[in-house]
Amino acid sequence: MRTCDALLLGTTMVSTPSDYWRRLYVKGLLPPLLEDLYDTDNRHGETVFDHTMNVLDAIRPLNMINMFSALFHDAGKGWEYEDISHEKISAREACPVLRLWGVDHETITRISSIIECHMSHIKEDLSDKAVRNFIARVGEENLKGWFSLRKADSQAYSGASISIICRFEKRVAATIGSNCKIVTDPSGDGCLITGGE
């Protein structure tokens, strides 16, 4: 069994996904990239590690792409340089860890793209061209993962509203066309794009 499969299995076998990763931290089994988040504060008064665990608990569905996107989305915080955002650093630094854990190249590319774009500015009055550019930048095959991460990231900050994210998700689905449709999220947390994968 690949390490990545064992990690996903371990994460899904506990009642709260973060419990598994907190146990790995206590046992000293996290890679330094994630372990260092424990000592990094974010602007919301918690450590980046705690925020990351909250995102992991909120992300749905819990699959390999979503789990690793959640775990590494802010891994570059504290490493920002004037010309390089934490998103780019997070995506770059996650890749060798994911390779070490046996994640295949295509999946690493998808996770990296989601992480690198996770802070993309969205608003309701974006032009159609800007929405198409967003879709091209994230990659149509990565939209489900991007919206899952963006919703979980917002909810991890004291349950912030995801309504603007859901409205943007509907707009993206409409822009893509008939090969995608909007369905109600069974957890009641909003909407999902289905199809096209």
Please write out the topology.
Elements: H1 3-12, H2 17-26, H3 32-35, H4 48-58, H5 64-72, H6 86-100, H7 105-117, H8 128-138, H9 143-155, H10 163-176, E1 181-184, E2 191-194
Antiparallel strand pairs: 1-2
Helix pairs in contact: 2-4, 4-5, 4-9, 5-7, 5-9, 6-7, 7-9, 8-10
The global form is globular
Q: What is the level 1 CATH name?
A: Mainly Alpha
CATH architecture: Orthogonal Bundle
Flag low-confidence runs. 181-186
CA-CA gap between termini: 25 Å
Helix content: 55-70%
CATH topology, anyone?
Hypothetical protein af1432
Radius of gyration (Å): 16 Å
Helix-strand pattern: HHHHHHHHHHEE
Task: Find the CATH superfamily.
Answer: Hypothetical protein af1432
Mean pLDDT: 86
Which structural class best describes the helix and strand composition? Answer: mainly alpha
The count of strands amounts to: 2
What is the strand content? under 5%
Major sheet details: 2 strands, antiparallel
SS summary, helix count: 10
Task: Summarize this structure as a short list of keywords or feature phrases.
197 residues, mainly alpha, Hypothetical protein af1432, 10 helices, 2 strands, globular
